[in-house]
């Protein structure tokens, strides 16, 4: 069953037609990579899934985006609870100016959780799931800014996990990181797929082929080809996909 279903989506920034007739389904507990040259609409499409584009003036969308059985652009939808279900991790790690503990506990505190025991348990479990616990367990009171970039990004993933989302959107989550941190994030994404649905934008073709179940190739606002990652990388249906994947353009 698809947990995300985009049905004929068009999106405009003012007069600019950024997404054209996008239809695609994303299965639960899978990793989907969005690839394509700069400006093709990957981030725009990703941001539609938790209504982050609502924050940009003078934009317009048509079509339907169904997430977990709900049309998320329906007027009745509560955007805060949507963003609890659909978490996001950005390109640059963006920890809050707080301790490691408080970064991860933040979402629960905002939701009114005060029980110290509950907070400690969620922080520990989230840091474990984000493969950061062993590195920080003795320094939870330290400022998040004292962590390395790669650790900060795993902290941001832990913060996203703490509010128990079903879906995690990641926009080039490893592009600002060194190779070792990148491979840690990749391993992490690979294990998280057992419990979460992950949609990730990446410019790194090896990364897409290593970690994703399905790959979607965008070009100039259109979804050109979408399929099993293995098949896309071994034998794409279209020449344009082949050219992009092998680095002949983009
Ligand atoms: N806030 C905005 N206002 C106007 N146009 C925008 C805005 N954000 C993006 N665009 C335009 O929409 C198109 C798609 O942008 P988007 O950021 O989705 O591309 P992308 O595939 O994520 O690119 P990149 O790989 O460089 O991140 C681009 O032509 C971009 O200039
Ligand atoms: Mg982008």
Layout: helices, strands, pairs:
Blueprint (H helix, E strand, L loop, with lengths): L1 E12 L2 E12 L3 E5 L6 H7 L10 E9 L2 E2 L7 H7 E4 L10 H11 L5 H14 L3 H4 L12 H14 L4 E5 L7 H14 L4 E5 L3 H7 L2 E6 L2 E7 H6 L4 H7 L5
Parallel strand pairs: 3-8, 3-9, 6-7, 7-8
Antiparallel strand pairs: 1-2, 1-4, 4-5, 9-10
The structure holds adenosine-5'-triphosphate and magnesium ion.
Q: Separation of termini?
A: 33 Å
Number of helices: 10
Question: What kind of sheet is the major sheet?
Answer: 6 strands, mixed
Mean pLDDT rating: 95
Radius of gyration: 18 Å
* Ligand catalogue: adenosine-5'-triphosphate, magnesium ion
Low-confidence runs (pLDDT<50, min 5 residues)? Answer: none
Describe this structure in words.
The chain is of the alpha/beta class. It has 10 helices and 10 strands. The protein has a domain at 2-94 and 167-245: Rossmann fold (3-Layer(aba) Sandwich). Helices cover 36% and strands 27% of the residues. The longest helix has 14 residues, at 116-129. It binds adenosine-5'-triphosphate and magnesium ion. Adenosine-5'-triphosphate binds at residues 13, 16, 18, 36, 38-44, 56.
């Amino acid at each position: 069953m698809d947990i995300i279903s985009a049905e004929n989506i068009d999106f405009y920034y003012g007069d600019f037609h950024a997404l054209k007739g996008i239809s695609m389904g994303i299965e639960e507990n899978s990793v989907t990579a969005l690839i394509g040259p700069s400006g093709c609409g990957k981030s725009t499409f990703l941001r539609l899934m938790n209504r982050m584009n609502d924050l940009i003036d003078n934009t317009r969308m048509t079509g339907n985006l169904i997430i977990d059985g709900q049309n998320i652009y329906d007027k009745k939808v509560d955007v805060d609870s949507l963003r609890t279900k659909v978490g996001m991790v950005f390109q640059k790690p963006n920890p809050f100016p707080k301790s490691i503990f408080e970064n991860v506990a933040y979402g629960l505190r905002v939701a009114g959780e005060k029980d110290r025991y509950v907070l400690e348990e969620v922080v520990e479990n989230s840091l474990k799931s984000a493969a950061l616990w062993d590195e920080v367990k003795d320094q939870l009171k330290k400022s998040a800014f004292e962590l390395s970039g790669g650790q900060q990004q795993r902290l941001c993933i832990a913060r996203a996990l703490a509010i128990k989302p079903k879906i995690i959107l990641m926009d080039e989550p490893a592009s600002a990181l060194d190779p070792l941190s990148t491979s840690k994030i990749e391993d992490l994404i690979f294990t998280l797929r057992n419990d979460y649905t992950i949609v990730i934008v990446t410019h790194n073709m090896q990364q897409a082929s290593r970690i994703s179940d399905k790959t979607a190739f965008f070009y100039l606002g259109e979804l050109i080809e979408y399929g099993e990652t293995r098949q896309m990388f071994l034998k794409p249906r279209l020449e344009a996909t082949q050219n992009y994947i092998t680095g002949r353009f983009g």
